[in-house]
Amino acid sequence: MLELVTTRHNPLVDPSLHIWGWEIPVYLFLGGWVAGCMVLSGWLMRRGRAPGQGSVAYVLPWVGIVLLSLGMGALFLDLEHKLYVWRMYLTLRPTSPMSWGGWILILVYPVMALAALAAIPRDLLSGWPSLAAFAERLRAGRSLRLLGTVSIASGIALGIYTGILLSSLGARPLWASAVLGPLFLVSGLSTGAAFAHMIARDPEEESSLLRADILFLVTELALIALFLIGHLTSGAQHAHAVALLLGGPYTAVFWVFVVGLGIVVPLVIQSLMASHRIGHTVIAPLLVMAGGLALRIVIVAAGQYSHWIVP
Amino acid sequence: MARFGMVIDTRKCVGCMDCVIACKTENDVPDGHCRDWIGQRLQGTMPDLRLTITSERCNHCDRPPCVTCCPTGASHVHDFGKVVLVDHDKCIGCKACLAACPYDARFVHPDGYADKCTFCIHRVEKGLAPACVSVCPTHSMYFGDLDDPDSEVSRLIASRRHFVLKPDAGTQPRIFYLE
Amino acid sequence: MAHLSRRRFLKIAGFSAGAAAIAGGGTRTLQAMATRGPAGETRTVPTSCDLCFWKCNAIAHVRDGRLWKITGNPADPLSRGRLCPRGTGGIGAHFDPSRLHAPLIRRQARGEEVWAEVTWDEALGYVADRMQKIKATYGPEAVALFAHGIGGAFLKHTLKAYGGVNIAAPSFAQCRGPRDVGFELTFGEGIGSPERTDIANARCLVLIGSHLGENMHNTQVQEFAEAIANGASIIVADPRFSIAASKARHYLPVKPGTDLALLLAWMNVLVTEGLYDKAYVEQFGFGFENFAAEIATRTPEWAYPETGIPPELIRETAREMARHRPATLVHPGRHTTWYGDDAQRARAIALLNALLGSWGRKGGFYYPSSMDVPGYPYPAYPKSERGKVDNPEHKFPFASEAITTGIREATISGKPYPIKGWLVYATNLVQALPAQEETIKAIQNLDLMVVVDVVPSEIAGWADVVLPETVYLERYDDLNVELFRDPFVALRQPVVPPPGDQKPNWWIARELAVKLGLGAYYPWKDIEEYLDHRLKAAGHSLAELKQVGIVKGAKPPRYFDEGVATEFATPSGKIEFYSSQLAAAGFDPVPRYTRPVEGPPGSFRLLYGRAPVHTFSRTQTNPILQDAMSENEVWVNASVGARMGLRSGDYVTLRNQDGVVSNRVKARVTEAIRPDCVFMVHGFGHTARGLRGAYGRGASDSQLITRYVTDPLMGGTGTNVNFVTIEAGA
Ligand SMILES: Nc1nc2c(c(=O)[nH]1)N[C@H]1C(S)=C(S)[C@@H](COP(=O)(O)OP(=O)(O)OC[C@H]3O[C@@H](n4cnc5c(=O)[nH]c(N)nc54)[C@H](O)[C@@H]3O)O[C@H]1N2
Ligand SMILES: Nc1nc2c(c(=O)[nH]1)N[C@H]1C(S)=C(S)[C@@H](COP(=O)(O)OP(=O)(O)OC[C@H]3O[C@@H](n4cnc5c(=O)[nH]c(N)nc54)[C@H](O)[C@@H]3O)O[C@H]1N2
Ligand code: SF4
Ligand code: SF4
Ligand code: SF4
Ligand code: SF4
Ligand code: SF4
Ligand SMILES: [Mo]
Q: Is the CB of C424 under 6 A from ligand 1?
């Protein structure tokens, strides 16, 4: 028999860590979604989608700016020392994913702003001739392709970062997994793709985005499997942590909301949609997006709950 | 360069919490919060029982993840004694360091910054022992320079069996418990 | 100053010269950065701690006019520069949000806690008026005083001047009475407080229940740690795996209430194996043959079924004690009012020590001494014809102090004469005395009930008049001239002003005396004059004590081999292995074991004790100590917990043999207690509504102690005789 007693009673820390409530999962979810938007928009740009033809490639940056602002709002709400937030931008800490994150957030704004600018119809900019001229130059094929590449690259950085932010915190064994970065990236991509095919008006674009989302969802399932197996095979700390998802307090939510309703069910529906056995429905993409949020919520909560056990 | 650490004798420690209470008054630790605490670990079955009592706090790790994860540099290793400190005015309260510490040694001060044990650096710089060390009624706590082989702490570590908490968390803690 | 000099610290911490140089640089860096340690103007005031009766001497630190912290006075042999956790958290007494601020007079029925604030003049006028009436009708003896602690000194003086004789504290019949009586009967001297135990020098230390480390009487705990560090062999008998037990080489999970059997078996081994100190016994002992004959049948095999301790373990531990004698200290305990046969158990402990030759020897019991500080020359007190009520006709022939519960009984019965007024100073009689119903019944018989307290405690809730006292950090008290290893005289002095209209006890006692027309008994104008007068008579002065807090006398001889006279104030002038006093009074001259009464089937014996961060029922509203521990738990054996489906942290209620149900309390399901008993920390489960953060938190052992067995020798109330069942899902 082993009995452990502690006299510690710090709020947010005891009896188990719960420093991060809804704000951080929402921020990570929105960040991932934005990453998805950027990658897909960049991909479409590189595939030659020009502004003014109703492509989602030029809607996504606008959406991304709004979502990212909401996400940063959530992050800001989480800070305990809000007035000092500017301190983050006095330094770049190479060892701190939180620090890179802060900078990545700042850097993706201009990228999205450029894509958004390219999408603004000419006559709306008539009052600002130099801006209009700049937008015109952006719309040139080569710059669009370059912008697409930059957009994909920053989207990937943003997407991976949302996972690394957690996985760098080795004290929480559930988070300590190299798969978390790719997982969050792919989840962000699928959220973005689901959103994109939901709002796409061009049928061809819709169907390629739908197929992309199917690919992302399958990849996500594979990464989740890797994530679980990786933990199960990495020693007591990890096995103990992953037990939270495999027979612990977070098992039901994880399997029902993240895997079942968030991936498997929409995957089936979307496959049926792709093979035209059923018509297009917004239910599937909404489930995918909800699943993306559920993934962040479960991983953030269970990860805080997981701790460095003393055998 | 000094590298401060603590040695705590679990044979003498009675788990009385004097160290906890002294820290509270010395450092104005707000009600409902604590920088140090007592852990008790009981093993075995009646009557063959073994109790290990540990007075715990920030370990001022040699490899402190709380410092590497800090986005602002608020968490830092101080020159004097390599003590891990938080600069309140740089801290944005993102709590990454709380999540990064395997010992859960940190908490959010009601004023919004991450707080934890400072090894009572304000006392040490005056040549005093940390408050917890100075009150311990059983004289179970020792403080000093781990880099000085002649210091009491170094000698105790060299001469007695000891352990650290969660060694495989990889942080290289600097509080040593004598068995 | 409490601070170590820097040079000395550098030596202690083993800093290199280089590090010291950096320390200087560190200062600037730290000031430049905003990593704040506390800053501000500080001053220090030496005073003494009052969080318990050990009265350690301390140094209070005030920063920017606000009480900051309190540390031990390095000059003090009690604290040796380090306070216990309660002492360290003592400043919380000053900040306690529950404090009483002004005198109160009851406005509704007793116990309903409805008051009106009045002036001191009105409150004391009311008290004096009622006291005069009681004196006129029933005589001055009809007003009794319960006072615990040094702060009661002046009220005692006032009451004696008034003609009162009935003065008692729970420290005798609810605490150490049996122990002191058991030792007085054996060695002719009691143990006293602080205990005369030479723990630091013991090579073998035997603890019967005494849970040092939870019981935080400071010097004892410090010496306990020293003994551990010195490799002393520690033997602990306790039904619970206490902190002390965790330090023991031999832990004996004795069945509750059977210690006397264990003690007799130990003595049997020492005698039959010839391991005892023969020379010592021969030289100082009386009646050894009778004693040896009496215990001849008390073998370890006999004790085994009683105590549950295997015979081999009893033998092994007895031999261990013998191996280290005379530096083997069988600790006499302190709170010894357990089963009603306690004075005899204490006597057995005394005899075991006698066999080991530890009395008067290094590592055993030293001879304490105190400084010669004359009392203040007061007029003589009036003489009483009627004597005291607490022990009529010497029903308890060996009671050496007044019995609280005896006064309570007289208050209920009106015999031998009526008691009509209670003055209560710093003792929460509702929590401290067993059988709360009886206490309340007694109070209902009173014409006057006055409580001097610092918070609206349970006992204050029953008062007609509540007088708010300043806490120890805000007042002078009488000088502390204690019997101890080193003689000393120490001062308690105010550190900060009180936050409201609270007054110190000396002022209250003096004003009351004046109102009673007894001003002649207070020839001094204020306490400073009084203290200075006494100190001058001892060759010191108040000015000096205010500076240093404590003055020590010359080091006295402490052991027989240092020149202490080998005199024993017993009838035989020797250590009484056989007590003719006891025989003459009709008691066992050599202790005899009787089996403790068992509880109803399925019930658990209720045991209780201390937590290091609280003192009885008096510290639960101290915000610092409350933060360290805000409620108690009931310890339940793991197998019992498993059977009941209980887990640590689950709330349960306890129901005792008389149907009294406790407040809800967290279970601590643990291997660290026998399956036949449960354990709680005393002092929680407050029922007084004004006790913020403490009201209704945890459960009260006192509430469940509806039964007690009175020690026939000395009137102590054995209270480990209650049984509870556990009801889950509270
Ligand atoms: N059930 C049970 N009963 C016990 C014990 C037990 O363990 N369990 N222990 C027994 C023992 S060993 C002892 S010694 C006694 C102790 O018994 P008490 O000395 O009566 O102890 P407390 O219950 O703490 O009550 C102290 C009262 O004094 C008040 N007080 C505190 N400080 C001051 C002050 O500065 N001035 C004034 N005027 N009042 C103050 C407190 O508010 C409280 O009301 O209890 C005995 N009774
Ligand atoms: N922190 C703190 N320290 C204190 C006090 C305080 O209030 N707080 N009060 C002080 C005072 S006045 C006193 S009197 C002392 C009291 O402290 P002690 O004299 O040490 O009191 P005990 O009654 O011996 O302590 C209870 C212990 O006895 C065990 N026990 C219970 N029944 C039996 C039994 O039948 N046999 C045996 N062998 N053990 C048994 C319990 O499990 C528990 O471990 O503490 C003093 N020190
Ligand atoms: S003050 Fe000393 S004895 Fe008490 S808990 Fe802390 S380290 Fe242990
Ligand atoms: S114990 Fe925690 S807070 Fe302290 S240095 Fe190590 S990781 Fe950082
Ligand atoms: S909470 Fe403060 S100290 Fe901790 S990582 Fe964030 S900024 Fe750094
Ligand atoms: S070293 Fe100072 S800050 Fe750290 S736990 Fe001890 S008293 Fe508190
Ligand atoms: S033992 Fe503790 S509470 Fe009692 S007087 Fe000493 S320091 Fe104060
Ligand atoms: Mo006591």
A: no
Out of C195, C403, C438, C454, give the residue to mutate to test ligand 1, the one with the largest number of ligand atoms within 8 Å of its CB.
C454
Query: Do residues C485 and C366 lie in contact, with contact meaning Cβ atoms separated by under 8 Å?
Result: yes
pLDDT of residue C12: 35
Q: Which residues pair with C727 in a beta bridge?
A: C653
CA dihedral (C83, C88, C92, C94) in degrees, to 10, reads 50
Residue A237 CA, ligand 6 centroid: distance in Å:
29
Q: Is-same-fold flag (C188-368; C604-728)?
A: no
Tell me whether residue C99 is exposed, middle or buried, using C-beta atoms within 10 angstroms of its C-beta: 0 to 12, 13 to 18, 19 or more.
buried
Mutate to test the pocket of ligand 6, among B24, B25, B26 (most ligand atoms within 8 A of CB): B26
pLDDT at residue C8 is higher than 80: no
Number of domains in chain B: 1
Q: Test C671 with A7 for CB contact under 8 angstroms.
A: no
Least Cα distance to B55 among B106, B11, B20, B102 occurs for B20
- For residue C482, pLDDT beyond 80: yes
What's the B137 CA to ligand 3 centre distance in angstroms?
7
Question: Which residue bears the tokens 């102090």?
Answer: C401
Locate all alpha helices (DSSP H) within chain A, ordered by sequence: 23-46, 60-78, 97-119, 129-138, 141-167, 180-199, 203-232, 236-242, 251-253, 265-274, 283-305
Q: Would you say how long chain C is, in residues?
A: 730
Q: A133: burial class by Cβ within 10 Å (0-12, 13-18, 19+)?
A: exposed
* Domains of chain A and CATH, by start: 18-305 (1.20.1630.10)
- Residue A243 above 70 pLDDT? yes
Of A9, A93, A170, the CB nearest to B71: A93
CATH code, C604-728:
2.40.40.20
Domains of chain C, residue spans: 188-368, 604-728
Torsion B6-B9-B12-B17 (CA) sign: positive
Omega of the bond prior to A51 within 30 degrees of 0, cis? Answer: no
Residues 6+ apart with CB under 8 A from B128: B120, B134, C3, C4, C6, C9
**How many angstroms separate the CA atoms of A35 and A153, rounded?**
9
Q: Whose CA is nearest to atom 31 of ligand 2?
A: C607
Compare all CA atoms of chain A with the CA of B89 and give the residue at the minimum distance: A84
Range C188-368 has CATH code 3.40.228.10: yes
According to the model, what pLDDT value does residue C37 have?
A: 53
Query: Which burial class, exposed, middle or buried, applies to C158 when counting CB atoms under 10 A from its CB (0-12, 13-18, 19+)?
Result: buried
Provide the pLDDT for residue A121: 85
Measured at the alpha carbon of residue C38, what is the angle toward residues C33 and C44, in degrees to the nearest 5? 145
What pLDDT sits at residue C29?
A: 36
Subunits with 3+ Cβ pairs within 8 Å of A are B, C
Task: Please give the structure tokens belonging to residue C312.
Answer: 């081999």
CATH number of domain containing B140: 3.30.70.20
C583 CB-near residues (< 8 Å, 6+ apart): C589
* CB-CB under 8 Å, A1 with C648: no
A7 in contact with chain C, both atoms CB, cutoff 8 A:
yes
Residue at C447: amino acid letter? D
How high is the pLDDT of residue C559? 98
Q: What is the pLDDT of residues C503-542, one digit of tens each?
A: 999 999 999 999 999 999 999 999 999 999 999 999 999 9
Strand order in C250-252's β-sheet?
Answer: C250-252, C233-237, C204-208, C328-330
Task: Give A149-177 pLDDT, tens digit per residue.
Answer: 999 999 999 999 999 999 999 999 999 99
Question: Quick check: A25 contacting B, CB < 8 Å?
Answer: no
Is C638–A7 a contact, with Cβ atoms under 8 angstroms apart?
A: no
Interchain contact B137–C (C-beta under 8 A): yes
